[in-house]
Structures are given as structure tokens and as C-alpha cells.
Amino acid sequence: MFVTAALAQVQQTSAGDVFIPISKYISSSDAEGLSAWFAENLELDIMGSVNNCTKSQAKQIMKSFFSKYTPKEFSILHKSGRPPMTYAVGSLSAGGEQFRVIIYVKAAGEKNEIQQLRIEKQ
After folding, report:
1. The pLDDT of residue 109
2. Of the candidates 100, 102, 94, the residue with the CA atom closest to the CA atom of residue 121
């Protein structure tokens, strides 16, 4: 019983920490680095344009977004969920606009992968 509780705590901690590097990649408009966290297939919702796409397609979509809206500042406002699925809500200032970013991450074995990324104009 204790081992199970300890394992759950480790998974929860590592799932929470996953948003630190993801935030760094969003802040620096690094689509390549961000794509390393993408699941093989994921859902991207960029300002209402929903795409179920592959990892490489999602990387191209994010490159396009970052070229149009260069990030100035990104911060995580809220984290929640339970392993294997956690999420974070962030605020992005980019290209003179304000966006809400919602990131859903699933723990898949030893890896954490972004299953869904939503960017909404505020």
C-alpha cells in the first residue's frame, strides 16, 4: 500500500514538472523543442481551427503560429488533473495579442506526452 502511494506521488510530481520545459519552449517560440513533447497523434486547436494531426504536422502548425505571433511572455496560471492525465492553463502574450493556452499531458510509461494543445484569443 505504501509503495503504491509513493509511486502515485512520484508520478504526480513528475507530471506537474513537465509543464516547466513545455513553458520554456512556448516562451521562446521553439516549435522543435515543443514538438519533442507531442504524442504521435494529437489534437491542436489554434483559435478555433481544430486539427487532429501527427507530431510533424503539429510542429509545422506551431512554427506557423509562432512566426505570426512571436511570444513575448508565457506563464502557467493553473495546473490540475491526476495521472495519467494532467493539464495546465497558461497566459501567452504574443504578437501584441493575449491568448489562453490549455495543455493536456498524458503520462505514457516513463514519458509524458502532449495529447491536446489549445490556444484561444482572449
Report:
1. 83
2. 100
Segments of the chain assigned E as strands:
38-46, 49-54, 71-82, 85-94, 97-108, 111-121
Indicate the pTM of the whole model.
Answer: 0.85
Cell of residue 49, nine digits: 481551427
- Grid cell listed for 115: 495529447
Within 10 angstroms of residue 80's Cβ, the number of other Cβ atoms is 9
On the question of a cis peptide bond just before residue 71, with omega within 30 degrees of 0, the verdict is no
Residues 51-107 have pLDDT tens digits of: 999 999 999 999 999 999 999 999 999 999 998 999 999 999 999 999 999 999 999
DSSP 10: H
Return the domain boundaries, the chain. Answer: 2-121
Q: Domain 2-121 carries which CATH code? A: 3.10.450.50
DSSP 80-91: EEETTEEEEEEE
